[in-house]
Structure formats: C-alpha cells, structure tokens
Design a protein that fits this description.
22% of the residues lie in helices and 18% in strands. By secondary structure, it is α/β, with parallel strands linked by helices. It folds into 2 domains: 70 residues, no CATH class; 100 residues, Uridine Diphospho-n-acetylenolpyruvylglucosamine Reductase, domain 3. The strands form 3 sheets. A 4-stranded mixed β-sheet has the order 1-2-4-3. It has a two-stranded antiparallel sheet with strand order 5-6. Strands 7-8 form a two-stranded antiparallel ribbon. β7 and β8 form a beta hairpin. It is globular, with a radius of gyration of 16 Å. GO terms for molecular function: FAD binding. This is FAD-binding oxidoreductase.
Length: 186
C-alpha cells in the first residue's frame, strides 16, 4: 500500500474536490489493505473519499471534510473470467477499457457506454451508476451486476450476490451501492 502526505506529488492531476485537498492519499493494493484503511479511518474518525479515475467526482455533493483520498486504481486485477458463463470478476480499479479488451479477445463485450472515457474505473462506474444510450437496449450496470464484495464503513468486508443470475442467497444488497458514490461502502 502506498501512502502519501503530498497528494499533488502522488499523481500530477491531484485530488482536488470542490476546492479541497486531502491531507493524505492512500492507494491500497489488496482488498485486505482496503478494509484495514477503512476500518482505521472509522476508528480515528477520519473522513475518506473513494477515488477511481476521478472523472465523475463533480457529480456528488462536496464533502464537509476531506482528510484522505482513497485512490482505488491499484486494485486493478481481473480476478476471474469465464467466457462460457459470460461472467467476469474484477477489482474496483480495473478500467472499462481493460475489461472490454479482455472480453473482445473472446468475441464478447460489456454493453456499457457511459459518457466517460474508457479509462473510467469499474468501481467508479458502479458508484455513479453511469450509463449511456445503450442502456435502452441492453440495460444499465444494475442489470449486469451479479454480485459484489464491499468494504463497509467500519472496515468489514461483506459479499452479496454470486456468479449466477438465479442466486437465492438473499436480497440483492449489492445493488444498493449502485449510484451511492461510495457512501454505503467501498
């Protein structure tokens, strides 16, 4: 995990949000590190703001406090891909372009065309519930999401849904996170 006390040095674009700069930038590389960071922030009452590619940060209300930018772009692994089952599992920092490239190699594609570049992260697209004109024919992220692992505000890792469409494991709580801008979990 990389921690920087100088956000402008961590990445040239910086992490300015509504005129505010964080005191620190944290870039976890594993889900366990992410859970640790979020749990520690809860214990110390530190205000964190999840950050993907940053292309849609302006859509949400500005935070009243902004202590730590939680940059998720290092969570960039494709975990599983089962072309025959039409299932792909990725971490939050994987870009839409990367997913589309992997799928294209098998003659598949994800019909998401948000008004954002292909370097938008999957986590960011889900957090903002971003979609484009193809939603009318194929549905949006809500219809394509089968499951999700989420780190809650206290640092607990929870899972909802599964790898199949007919999952009877309970409520589709993962769909609550779509469009929540990381306010319910990361």
């Amino acid at each position: 995990m990389q921690i920087s006390d100088t956000p402008s040095i961590a990445l040239p674009a910086g992490y300015t949000l509504a005129g505010q700069q964080p005191q620190r930038v944290v870039q976890p590389t594993t889900i366990a590190e992410l859970a640790t960071v979020v749990g520690e922030a809860a214990r110390t009452h530190t205000a964190i703001v999840p950050w993907g590619a940053g292309s849609r940060q302006w859509l949400t209300n500005p935070p009243t406090r902004y202590d730590v930018a939680l940059d998720l772009r290092r969570l960039d692994r494709l975990i599983e891909y089962h072309p025959a089952d039409l299932v792909v599992m990725v971490e939050a920092g994987v870009t839409l372009g990367t997913v589309q490239s992997h799928l294209a190699a098998q003659g598949q594609w994800l019909p998401w065309d948000p008004f954002a570049p292909l370097d938008a992260t999957i986590g960011g697209l889900l957090a903002t519930a971003a979609w484009g004109p193809l939603r009318l024919g194929y549905g949006g992220p809500r219809e394509w999401l089968l499951g999700m692992q989420v780190v809650l505000g206290d640092g607990r890792l929870v899972q909802s849904g599964g790898r199949v469409v007919k999952n009877v494991a309970g409520y589709d709580t993962h769909k609550l996170h779509l469009g929540a801008f990381g306010t319910l979990g990361v």
